[in-house]
Amino acid sequence: MADESKNNLAEDRTDWAEDRTVLANERTFAGWMRTGMAAIAIAVGLRAVFNAAEPTWIPKAVATVFILAAIVIFWSARRNAKRACERLDTHKAETQSTSVFTFLAIVFSLGAVTVGVVLWTL
Predict the structure, then answer these.
(1) By C-alpha distance, which of 119, 39, 23 is closest to 74?
(2) How would you class 77 by CB atoms within 10 Å of its CB: exposed for 0-12, middle for 13-18, buried for 19 or more?
(3) Per-residue pLDDT of the chain (122 residues; tens, 9 = 90+)
(4) Entry pTM
(5) Are the C-beta atoms of residues 85 and 13 closer than 8 Å to each other?
(6) N or C end: fewer C-beta atoms under 10 angstroms in the chain?
(7) Which distant-in-sequence residues (6+ apart) come within 8 Å of 95 by Cβ?
């Protein structure tokens, strides 16, 4: 009886650890999305600071590098979050569907492209 109780407690602890890992995966995804947004903010800032630089395409090109980096970050975050979700099982934690990661990567990428277009038209 004691062995069965210990096994049940061990299984509960393992389940809780897996739930914590799934939730940590979502926080990590959010952190990477914030990092991508920071890259977009750097692009806007560089474009503003070096607005008077000649030739004008140089600050635009540098800003574009950060926009592209943001898009890579968004999709890398999505890929890694999706992989982690597929490897782990939830027990009591309510987690996001992997389609949410894809949806957010699409929305953030479209926002980044829009910012890039605006920066090139200024």
Answers:
(1) 39
(2) buried
(3) 567 776 776 676 666 677 777 788 889 999 999 999 999 999 999 988 988 888 989 999 999 999 999 999 999 999 999 998 888 766 666 777 889 999 999 999 999 999 999 999 98
(4) 0.84
(5) no
(6) N
(7) 22, 23, 26, 85
Amino acid at residue number 68 = L
d(CA 110, CA 83) in angstroms, rounded, equals 23
Task: Write the CA distances from 77 to 16, 19, 39, integer angstroms.
Answer: 24, 19, 14
Which domain, by its residues, includes 69?
2-121
* Orientation angle between helical segments 57-87 and 2-49, nearest 10 degrees: 170
Instruction: State the CB neighbour count (10 A cutoff) for residue 72.
Output: 12
Residue with tokens 């004691």: 2
For the chain, the first-to-last Cα distance in angstroms comes to 74
> Can you tell me which residue has the tokens 């049940």?
8
For residues 32 and 108, what is the distance between their CA atoms, to the nearest angstrom?
12
- Looking at the 3D structure of the chain, how many domains does it have? 1
d(CA 63, CA 46): 6
